[in-house]
Amino acid sequence: MSRRNSNLDAITQELDRARINYVVERGRHLKVRFELLGRREMLVCAATPSHTSGERNAAARVRRMLREADEARYESDVRAGIRREVVL
User: Fold this and answer.
1) How many Å apart are CA 40 and CA 73, to the nearest integer?
2) How far apart are CA 8 and CA 29, in angstroms?
3) Rounded distance between C-alpha atoms, residue 19 and residue 53, angstroms
4) What order do you get walking across the sheet with 22-25 strand by strand?
5) What is the 3-state secondary structure (H, E, C) of the chain?
6) Rounded distance, CA 21 to CA 15, Å?
7) What is the pLDDT of residue 63?
8) Which segments of the chain have a pLDDT < 50?
9) Residue 88's pLDDT is what?
10) pTM across the whole model
């Protein structure tokens, strides 16, 4: 029988929302591997989470990584003289 893991669900939902492909490796801990701006990234979460705040923390960790990658891409574009259109 397979049990749901709220931490893993939170991570994969954020990556799905950002349309980023990932691979989940199961073991003592769950490892989620994905690529962000050409860099290989890995997030580790407990296979049996024990605290309810873990789900929020896992989602926030992914959003933070995505935000930092977007800021890095923006800074790279500015250095290269590439302009972005801002749509409001």
Assistant:
1) 16
2) 10
3) 25
4) 22-25, 29-36, 39-46
5) CCCCCHHHHHHHHHHHHCCCCEEEECCCEEEEEEEECCEEEEEEEECCCCCCHHHHHHHHHHHHHHHHHHHHHHHHHHHHCCCCCCCC
6) 7
7) 94
8) 1, 88
9) 44
10) 0.78
